[in-house]
Fold:
Amino acid sequence: MLDHLEIRTRRMGDCVAFYRRVLEPVGYGLVVDGPAKGFGHDGRLDFWIVEGDPSLDVHFAFNAVDRPAVDAAFAAADGHGGRRDRAPALAPHIHPNYYAGYARDPDGRLVEFVSHAPA
Structure:
């Protein structure tokens, strides 16, 4: 995953539901459920959602262990206010094993799910 990232939203319920669904296939879950919502994996807290004014110019990528995890996260993106943006595909212009899919969260931010593992 990322070291950590904090986003702001005006739609907390929708954002939390969206991220719970799309992060589960890549091994992350809601760990802190207070005013700030913290998602993590293996004892780390990497991703936070807080109430506030969202910025639409954010793009962030979540690391997935393999291509099926990318596909599963992308498939989970519809609903809870989110939507699919670009279907998972190889991006050989980045590197030969760069496999990524893209979604939009409830505030319109571009969310990428990427694996660097070979097929």
Notes: Residues 62 and 113 are 5 Å apart (CA to CA). Strands lie at 5-9, 29-33, 37-41, 44-51, 59-63, 83-90, 99-104, 110-115.
